[in-house]
Specification:
Blueprint lengths: L3 H4 L5 H14 L22 E7 L4 E7 L1 H7 L14 H17 L3 E8 L5 E12 L5 E10 L3 H7 L6 E9 L4
Antiparallel strand pairs: 1-2, 1-5, 3-4, 3-6, 4-5
Length: 177
């Protein structure tokens, strides 16, 4: 796994650190194994990290690990929820479409944009979604990081009520081979 094309852009340092961690997890394999993901390994950025596992029979995603900042961005603790239970239909569809592209293509997705709340408040965001494989080599889990453009201590002041909508401005599918 090689994020050279991503590292040639200006990146938030936490996004770069997360990409390096994913490369380390993958080793010589094309994608990292989901079973190797350990939030404790990335303690300095763990509040911004989350996982989602595809449920093929239900065409849904089970949200697993969810860092503390995700609670502020989405208005709820996402761990253990299904994507179909999060936010409104527009948020769910945009997230589902992004997750599906990552799982289908086996390629990470980098994005810059905004989380926008119903009351009009917004926060700039950088996000990286990385596909991970199960023990049989099937890409079925996403590990993502969303870094808001404000400090964590100020995040509650900038966020609105309820779930935000993700509005993308710049998306890049990454060929990491």
């Amino acid at each position: 796994m090689n994020f050279g094309c991503l590292f040639s852009r200006y990146l938030h340092p936490e996004i770069a650190g997360f990409a390096r961690y994913m490369c380390d997890l993958a080793g010589d394999d094309p994608l990292p194994r989901a079973s190797l993901f350990n939030p404790g390994d990335i303690a300095s950025i763990v509040d911004y990290v989350y996982t989602a596992r595809y449920l093929p029979g239900e065409n849904d995603y089970l949200l697993g690990y969810s860092g503390n900042c995700m609670h502020l961005l989405f208005g709820a603790d996402l761990g253990g929820m299904r994507l179909s239970e999060v936010g409104d239909a527009i948020l769910r569809q945009s997230q589902h479409d992004s997750y599906d592209r990552v799982i289908r293509t086996h390629l990470p997705l980098y994005m810059r944009g905004y989380y926008v709340w119903p009351n009009g408040k917004s926060v700039p965001i950088e996000r990286l979604l990385v596909p991970m494989v199960d023990e049989d080599g099937h890409a079925n889990t996403i590990c993502g990081i969303s870094i808001p453009g404000v400090a964590e201590v100020d995040l509650a002041m900038y966020t609105g009520q309820g779930p935000a909508r993700l509005v993308g401005e710049d998306e890049l599918m990454l060929n990491t081979a």
